[in-house]
From TrEMBL:
This is KilA-N domain-containing protein. Pfam families: KilA-N. It comes from the Bacteria. InterPro entries: KilA/APSES_HTH, KilA_N. Residues 9-144 form the KilA-N domain.
Length: 281
């Protein structure tokens, strides 16, 4: 797991707190250390090591890695599999990771330190610790994911609403400054569409029609598939374009200026920790 990890939440399983972290995508990693405390509060690391001694555990971890990790070292895995189960065999998470280049288990130091594993592996470990405890973990993990989806939906809708508000400002500026009186409704629509595509080109590098041609199997439009950063920038571009229109700037001039703004703002937002927090909630 090359990407940095961030605290995502806490599972409350029958009175026990279990940390959950994310590597920035849809995959969550759950603390094996916290799960192990259910079995041994004083020495959770020993519980994890005992689990790793089993041949069935090694085979499960190896299969998971082969399904998800193209750089998994099979030779080293076979060696562990052959040794597993012997009285002298001892395996720590750190040794497993270092020897096989595994990504399903990670070892972290610092504030949220301990051994974490992908949710698939964490649930398997929980089954070994206690089938009953595993059910508590799964139940509250589902609650955590539900809360996460609700927050993402709220953040997304807030940004879509902001974009719609600025869109009204944008279309009013077009109506007042670019559309002469007595122009047909049909031609008014053409003007609006042209200005909307001006923003699409400035931000996405393509028109709505070009996007639909490239994504014929997708539902919705180009903005429905925009990232959180792109939606924020689009809202800003709509306000700026409205001002540029009032200043009497040509469409060509506005396109160049808006494109520069889009590039600068996206670069800034992609590294903005506040936006990252919204994405990871």
């Amino acid at each position: 797991m090359a990407e940095s990890t961030n605290m995502k939440g806490t599972i409350h399983a029958n009175g026990n707190k279990i940390a959950v972290i994310s590597n920035g995508n849809e995959n969550d990693y759950i603390s094996l250390t916290d799960i192990a405390k259910y079995k041994n509060q004083d020495s959770p690391a020993d519980v994890v090591k005992n689990w790793l001694r089993s041949r069935s555990t090694i085979e499960f971890l190896g299969l998971w890695e082969q399904m998800h990790n193209s750089t998994f070292k099979l030779v080293e895995f076979d060696q562990f599999k052959n040794e597993a189960g012997a009285n002298s065999f001892v395996l720590s998470p750190q040794r497993w990771i270092a020897s096989t280049n595994a990504i399903g288990i990670i070892s972290k130091s610092g504030r949220y330190g301990g051994t974490f594993a992908h949710q698939d592996i964490a649930f398997e470990f929980a089954s070994w610790v206690s089938a009953e405890f595993k059910l508590y973990i799964i139940k509250d993990y589902q609650r955590l994911k539900s809360d996460e989806n609700s927050r993402l939906s709220l953040d997304w809708n807030l940004n879509r609403t902001l974009s719609k508000i600025n869109y009204r400002i944008h279309t009013d500026a077009i109506k007042e400054n670019l559309i002469p009186e007595n122009v047909s409704i049909k031609h008014q629509g053409i003007t609006y569409a042209t200005e909307a595509d001006l923003l699409n080109i400035a931000l996405f590098g393509k028109t709505a029609k070009e996007w639909r041609t490239e994504n014929s199997s997708s539902n919705g439009n180009i903005r429905d598939y925009a990232s959180l950063q792109q939606l924020i920038v689009m809202a800003n571009l709509e306000s700026l374009n409205a001002e540029f229109i009032k200043q009497g700037l040509s469409q060509a001039e506005r396109l160049v200026m808006l494109n520069r703004v889009a590039i600068d703002q996206l670069r800034s937002l992609l590294g903005n920790p506040s936006v990252k927090k919204l994405e990871n909630k």
